[in-house]
Amino acid sequence: MPVRVTVAMSGGVDSSVAAALLLEQGFQVDGVMLHLWAEPGARENACCSLQAQSDAAEVARILSIPFRVLDASEIFRRKVVEPFIDTYIKGRTPNPCIICNREIRFGFLLEYALKHGSEFMATGHYARIRHTPEGTYQLLKGKDTNKDQSYVLYTLTQEKLAHILFPVGDYTKPQVRKIAREYNLPVTQKPESQDLCFAAGGDYRGFLKRHSPHPLRPGPIMDTRGNVLGQHHGLALYTIGQRKGLGIAAGEPLYVVAMDADRNALIVGTRKALGKKHLSASDVNWISGKAPESAIEVDVKIRYRATPAPATVVPTPGNEVTVSFHSELRDITPGQSAVFYQDDVCLGGGIIRG
Questions:
Q1: Which of 107, 123, 177, 240 is the most buried (most CB within 10 A)?
Q2: Are the beta carbons of 74 and 37 closer than 8 angstroms?
Q3: Distance between CA atoms of residues 279 and 33, nearest Å
Q4: Radius of gyration of the chain measured on its C-alpha atoms
Q5: Dihedral, CA atoms, 19, 53, 203, 106, nearest 10 degrees?
């Protein structure tokens, strides 16, 4: 009997080609799309819009595979949307895609797939998995360096990697589009969505104003010496490194360098003040399942699109690490993730605390 795989289909070209490649390799493929929560004004989540559902269903018809839409709206609201709001209110900047991958795609959906007879679940992520001679699994960057998505997958564990496939990880985006054309798939030239999927218009500031359980509190804008320069409209509406929209006048450009939640103060400074050489991170996941016994030399990404920077990572008690960069970095942002690499291998990562 062919090995059964559940493919998480989004109606985009990457997951569609993932399904086609698995069929070509002899797997029995089922397609599933998740129906996710969206605020009422948005009418539908950008990741599972009616058009996306129609596209995914048409791809499934062409490939002759079963397809269904699975309701995950309530768990998505609880596990992704509510923590997103809470993190912003605390003056930090979250990455909801990382939470969604941990809790929804490789939590809720993976559990569903295994429970309903699949041995594997596959997605269209640009990443790779290596099974080592020692019997463990490594998460690798995708072959297409411009599309590599290992950053948003660093929360994966050994148990989950044993049941995951990334069929497009060995291809470049142009190659994936070429394969889609060969299969006559209608999504060949479909653009990728870059907006916040569950907010109307992709506007997170407007979303927070509409959905925060507490009114956003105005407070002082202060320089690094404590001088009050103006007033902000709520810490959640700003992010580290922001320059525009501060509403203050100064003799040189000023940037958001910190958020003091205790004083409800937005701290601004010069471009030089943005440079930092250290960070601490918590909730660290080591993909190997075991933290290093001592300091290790790695490259660290502090945002999805950031350039990896050489650093020393030191594990500390409580599932935390300290990271010391070889050179100063701009825009180290609490709430974002610091993800660790050695060459192509993603070792894991954690949430930046400060």
A1: 123
A2: yes
A3: 38
A4: 22
A5: -40
Q: Where are the beta strands (DSSP E) in 9-136?
A: 28-35, 67-71, 120-122, 127-131
Tokens of 16: 């569609």
Nearest of 56, 51, 52, 48 to residue 29 by alpha carbon: 56
> Is-contact 33 56, C-beta < 8 A?
yes
Which residues are catalytic, by number? 100, 197
Q: ∠ CA(18), CA(19), CA(21), 5° rounding?
A: 65
Residue 78: other Cβ atoms inside 10 A: 12
Whether the predicted pLDDT of 202 surpasses 90: no
E strand spans, 19-79: 28-35, 67-71
Q: Are 166 and 233 members of one domain?
A: no
Quick one: 183 and 310 in the same domain?
A: no
| CATH label of the domain that carries residue 249 | 2.30.30.280
Domain shared by 40 and 188, yes or no: yes
User: Are the C-beta atoms of 303 and 352 separated by less than 8 Å?
Assistant: no
Pair 230, 302 in one domain: no
Residue 138, pLDDT > 90, answer yes
How far is 212 from 86, CA to CA, in rounded Å?
Answer: 8
Q: Do 8 and 120 belong together in one domain? A: yes
User: Are 65 and 226 in contact, with CB atoms under 8 Å apart?
Assistant: no
Most confident of 28-32, 250-254, 261-265: 28-32
pLDDT higher than 80, residue 201: no
pLDDT interval class at 38 (50, 70, 90)? confident
